[in-house]
Structures are given as C-alpha cells and as structure tokens.
Task: structure prediction
Amino acid sequence: MIRSQPLRPAGARRPLAALVVALILLLACSGGAGALPAGPLRLVWWTDVGFPTPFAVSTLGPGGVVRLSLLYDTLVWKDHTGVIPWLAESWRISGDGRRWTFTLRPDVVWHDGRPLTARDVQFTFEYYRPHPFVWVDTSVVAEVTTDGPRTVTFVLREPFAPFLEDIAGIIPVVPAHVWEGVAEPRKAQGVGMATGSGPYRLAEYRPGTGEYRLEANHRYFRGRPRFEEIQYTVIPAERQLLAIQSGQSDVAMADTYDVVRAFSGHPYLRTWQSEPLSVARLLFNTERPPFDQRAARQSVAYGINRTQLATLVTRGPGVPGSPGIVPPTDRWHNPRIRAYPYDPSKARSLVAQAGLTSLAFELLASPSPVVPVVQEMLRRAGIEVSVRTVDARTRAALVAEGKYQAALTFHIGAGGDPDYLRRWLGGGEANLFGQSAGFTHPEFRRLAAGQARTLDQAARRASVHRMQEILADELPTLALYYRRFYWVYDSRKFIPTATAGGLMNGIPLIENKLAFLGR
Result:
C-alpha cells in the first residue's frame, strides 16, 4: 500500500535544498557567518512589488500591500491578540450595523508634517470610488461624513461583519492634499506621491530591480522607529538562506521545517514560524470535462494522501488540507465536513461512477515539489496527470480566462475573517494567486452573501460551517495542505512579533510595524 512506501518529492530543488542545509550547518558550526554589519535592516522578497502607493502596487502576492503598511496607516491594526486601535483611538457601531464612528488620535502627522484629520479619511474613501485600492473592495461604504477634525462616520450600504478587520484594518489612509486633483493615480509615481503617515517614508525605489529604501519617520505617533533605514532587495526564494548566511540580508524566508533544525543552536540566527495561513490547493475547472462532473473531482480527493503530502513537502509537521478550505487550526473550521480519507479504490470506483473508463487531465502548475508527488499518488489510483509548466503570473492569467482543466496554486489568506471563502469562490479576491473561477452553487452564493451581512456570531458561524459542508461535497477546489512560513532572522538586529490571524486579511509575513518600533 502506498502508506508503506514513503514518497519523496522529486525535482531539481531537492539537491539544492540539501546543499543549502549542509552549508548552513557547516557555517553555523564554524561560526563562519561572522558579525553582521551595523546599519540598515535588510529585508528580502522574491519579486518587485511595484511603486508603493495604493494605486500602483502589485497584487502578485501580498508583498506589495504589506510594504504599503510601513508607509501608510489604517484606522485599526493587529497585534498578537487581534484588532487594536491605531489611527483611531476608539470606535462605536450603530445597532443596525450600518454606521461606524471612529475617533482619531490628535497627534498624527503626514510625512511632510501636515496634520492627518478626519477630512483625510473621508477623502480617502471618496477617492477610492473612482480609483479603487488594489487590494480591497470598498464599495460597501455608501457615505463618509466628518464631525470636526477627529470624528469620522462610515455609513454602509448594508451591515458588513468583516468591516473592522478587512476594511478599517487594511485600507491605507492617504493625504487629501497630495491626491486631490490627480486624475490618473496609477501613473503618479514620484517619491512624494508615496507620502503617508507610517513609521517609514519612501526614500528610493528602483523599478525593475525591486530595490526599495525606506527612511525612518521620526515624528511617528506610535514612537520612534527602531531602524533608521530599511532596505528591500529581490532575492529568489531558493537563495535567501544562503543570503542571510553570507551577510547579504538580515531576514530570509523558507517554507520547510528543516530550517528550524538547521539553525537550532546557531549563535545569533534564529527561526520564527507563522501560523499555517498559506494554502496549496487544486483548482478544478467545473465548466470543462472531466471536472464538470463532481465524481471526477471527488476521485482526485480520494486519490491524494494529503497527510503524507503535507509531511513530505514541508519536511516537518505538515497540516493536511481540509475539503472545506478553512484550516483545522482556525476557530471557524467545521470539523464535521466530508473528509475524503486516502482511498485509491474509492477513487477508481468514482471514476467509473462518472461514466469514464479512465481519468486523465492536464495540471497547470509552476515548478514545485508538490507536482511529482501528486502525479505519483494519482497514478497509483489509476488517474493520469500531464503537467503544463508555466510561471506563476501566466498560471494566474490562464485560470482567470478559464483555460485550464486543473491548476495548482499557492497563496496566503487562510486566516483572519472567514469572508475569504466568499472572495475566493465567488469572486472579488485581489490576490492574483487566490483567484479562481466563480463557484455558481446557488446555496453557497446565498450563504456567502448572507454571512457577510450577519453580525450575530452564532448565526454567522452556522452559515460559514454550512459553506464548508457545501465546498467539501462539491469540491470546486481541494486544499492539499497548509503552509507555515519559517523565517530566519538575525536576532542581534530584529525580533519578529506575532500577529493574530496574520497581517490584515491573513498574511503570514513578519512586517508587522509593531516590530519596527522602539519598545
């Protein structure tokens, strides 16, 4: 049986990963990394995220919106306990859930020294109507009014349960005096256009190379920034561990547990792991054969040993995917949904039930150790998979156009408010990696819209649980496993801080601005 035959992910990255770990161990044991130089904090990402304004930043993953959070502020923010006051020192909600009134702090100024007032907040949301913020839809806001320089009230078109976390906690407030009269904000890319109120100001951006230089905002209302300068550089994911070892960076990211073992006992490099908020999942095109038949989708679910897959590719305590998408570690998870335990015989019988003599399909995917493992597992269940390898951006575009049978995607966001089920399956998700074809199931769509309007937590939980049951039965997508991000950091310079449910709408990155402020 397959359980007795451990599988190993094939591919070129495996030898490289082994080499990286060996070098890490060698350098750690010899102390060869030496002391990191004093000076700016050097952070890394894997791609250029565009010019850092709410109108021009990239949505190819969360790197762009997280970088914005160092330059701009939101009404509320999150720490390890959940939502906390930020630009707003207090707020209240009307009984019908349609009016939110915030009282702003009195001591906030923009990078250019001008005061941030309720008028700026009002302007921000009015400006986002014709010029939408790229990461979050604000159309639920019908009107914004002010009452003096510190009081601002939002009138919503209908109650919106995720408002505090997913809008007040994500939307960057922009200065009216900078953006008034700007007709094409996407094209406005001078350094001064990135004026915000955040702990850092943009000093330099080099398009193409993805290099950013941020300088400390010494007038920041939450205290003096810890670093005088932050530098971002682009380093491919597979080279980041070598970069931190060689002193090229102060932080590196990995998605496999073996880095924890590799750096255990290192004199100053430490590891920090996120919650499992990133998901690897299969997208089925339910409009095209063979996955227009539910039995075909379910046969794939029975043919993949998700527990074994999670352990193999994360090289540690992996978290297998839930057919209802919400991770089992999340308080919104429904534990009573259909589970699809690994059963190759059941997979074969479902293929026959679908009226097929055999099941074969093309998988759209970027290079990943997951691909050969899934291929081999399904082959043993009698399902043949051919792989079409494309880069991540191309894969996202083909999925959006419906030009695929099945696709493999990895993305963040499986945390925070559960409204992501509506966005991912019903449309409206900004993250290109999280988008999938609209799921047209009538009851799911009704529940998805209803849970967002429901302020009663028990009633909302019942709806979200039922949505997971439908997803598990219909399987428009199959969560394979959840990923933690493992961060290696130079503890002499930087200490990460935990964020409940991830930054903003479930982003497991370490750039919580609280970690960049003096304590």
